[in-house]
Amino acid sequence: MPITSSIPVLQGSGGAVLSAEPDGLLLDRPGQKATIPVRAVARVHAESRSVTVELRALPGATPSVHLIEGVSEAAGAAFAEAVNALLPAPAEDVDGAALVDLRTFTKTWLEGYRRRLGRVVLGYLGAILALALVTAIAGPGETGVAGAVFIVPLGLLAAVMLWLGGVCVVPWFHETRLRRHGVTVDAEPADDPGTYRYTDTTGTTHVFAHQSTAPSVRVAYPPRDPSSVLVLQARNDRILEIVLGPGFIFSGLVVTAFPIWLATSVLQGKQLP
User: Fold this and answer.
1) Are residues 113 and 99 part of one domain?
2) Both 83 and 126 in a single domain?
3) Which among 171, 178, 161 is positioned nearest to 114, based on CA atoms?
4) Which of 10, 60, 190, 226: CA 20 to 30 A from 214?
């Protein structure tokens, strides 16, 4: 018997939501969604502000459970009573855990790397601004101010070059390593537009955002962290990045030397050329 929509929706702690659907239960957590079909559910237990969904298990096996905490005590009791009343009588032994569709919503490795790179660049700019401020304050008169005026744009130019170099070079190295030592699979379009899904070696389905109309995209992930996925590019598409990336990094390091030289010269009382 299908579960009806009259059953209350449970709002738990940490953004967890447990709701009933016509074909089962849906436990939605930030970054993860578990779809539990009716035939996988053995019993729902409500205790205080916690609700536990106990799954059916094969004889002799320990049942798996899904727990949501911090729910309304009255709503939890009503939810458990309503779901238990609608559960069908088991016709055969099944492994409920194997029937659960567990999907993890993850950000790609490239998204996480670009955020980390952005924080590094912001820290670099902060150091440049601090260097300019010290030069302007501690430098002799107009020379200190003039030095600070040159330091800021040079630092900005170097930051852009280093950022471009990091965007080009590091993903290429990471992709090369994953091709050799990672797990490569084809991801298929997920339910929502602009998303793809793949299943790792443990059977967990991961969903990630990727703007493409292709029927599948090839991805790779490290065996120890299946959620850290990278969409692979054709090797020819990386040629420009491989050529330009090291040049950007080298240029950024060279330009970085100029603000340091300017600040040192000003603070030593030397006249700027």
Assistant:
1) no
2) no
3) 171
4) 226
Query: 170 Cβ partners below 8 Å, 6+ apart?
Result: 113, 117
Predicted confidence at residue 5, as pLDDT, reads 57
Q: What is the CATH number of the domain that holds 29?
A: 2.30.29
Beta strand spans in 24-179 (E):
24-29, 32-37, 41-47, 50-55, 65-69, 101-105
With a CB cutoff of 8 Å and minimum separation 6, the contacts of 270 are: none
What is the three-class DSSP state of 207? strand
Residues 142 and 190 in one domain: yes
Q: Is residue 273 part of a domain?
A: no
Give the range with max mean pLDDT: 92-96, 231-235, 240-244, 255-259: 255-259
Domain interval for residue 247: 109-267
CB atoms near residue 196 (< 10 Å): 23
Looking at residue 93, its amino acid is: D
pTM for this model (two decimals): 0.69
Q: Is 159 left (phi over 0), alpha (psi -120 to 50) or beta?
A: alpha
Strand 101-105 and strand 205-209: the pairing is parallel
Q: In what order do the strands lie in the sheet with 65-69?
A: 41-47, 50-55, 65-69
Rounded CA separation 148/132 (Å): 4
pLDDT digits (tens, 9 = 90+) for 76-114: 999 999 999 888 887 788 888 888 888 888 888 999 999
